[in-house]
Design goal:
heterodimer, A: 67 residues, mainly alpha, 4 helices, B: alpha+beta, nine-stranded mixed β-sheet, 19% helix
């Protein structure tokens, strides 16, 4: 990654550490629960399907990286 | 066409401590300035513990994001470059997490599809983009596999994002993750 882009990422992280009002602006966190299931969640019905999905995703990522 | 330039992004006004939420301003074509939020959330599926969803748009209520609204930004490139950079920032913090983009919303899927296709060369060293289709098994008796409700028994099939694939043939779902 270019240094200039990494510097921007580091700057964003610094904002997160320093933002004084973040507790007010961002009341909820990623760990909150609710009906947020997406279409992928609906076609993964059990652990076996999840394992197959992850194996196929890993293979697709490996193939994508090799191109 | 949306051209991504990660060197030309909006600096966020605020960023949540866990890097899952970002606030930034964008000027619209009617000269109004709008506050936008990028929000990365767990998709609430224990079977997919590292898949997170990304939404962005104007704030709704205390914590929501209206990611269905259409806005005319003066600098659309910069808006999307910012969103992608925030997503990269998030995944750099949590390298095992994947961001999933649901293609059930055609407008949004179309936008992401074009963006990934157009910027593949630029982003390929940073991000791996995968497209997913849903498939149904053809049974030996000539029928298709169905679930207990009688609906087709869909299964996801991931593949490397096909650059030749037209926007008239969108994927059902997209994932992005860091190229490590």
């Amino acid at each position: 990654m270019k240094d200039s882009i990494q510097n921007k990422i580091d700057r964003i992280k610094a904002i997160s550490y320093n933002a004084p009002s973040k507790a007010v602006v961002f009341a909820a966190t990623v760990e909150e629960h609710g009906d947020k299931k997406d279409s992928l969640s609906k076609v993964i019905r059990n652990e076996k399907e999840a394992a197959i999905f992850y194996a196929e995703l890993k293979a697709a990522v490996t193939l994508a990286k090799s191109k | 066409m949306i051209i991504i330039n990660l060197d030309d992004v909006f600096e966020p006004i605020a960023v949540s401590e866990d890097l899952s939420q970002y606030l930034f301003e964008s000027e619209l074509t009617d000269d109004t300035v709008i506050l936008l939020k990028v929000k990365i959330t767990f998709n609430d599926e224990p079977l997919l513990p590292n898949v997170y969803n990304l939404a962005f748009g104007p704030l709704v209520g205390d914590d929501g994001v209206n990611d269905a609204v259409k806005l005319k930004h003066k600098n659309t490139y910069k808006v999307f470059s910012s969103i992608i950079l925030y997503a990269i920032t998030y995944m750099e913090q949590y390298p095992d997490r994947i961001i999933g983009i649901d293609g059930s919303n055609d407008v949004r899927a179309y936008l992401y599809h074009r963006m990934f296709a157009t910027n593949h060369e630029y982003l390929k060293d940073i991000l791996v983009t995968i497209g997913l289709d849903w498939y149904v098994r053809l049974l030996r008796n000539g029928t298709i596999e169905i679930d207990k409700d009688g609906s087709p028994f869909f299964k996801p099939k991931p593949e490397p994002f096909d650059l030749q694939r037209k926007t008239t043939d969108l994927y059902r779902y997209y994932t992005i993750q860091l190229n490590r």
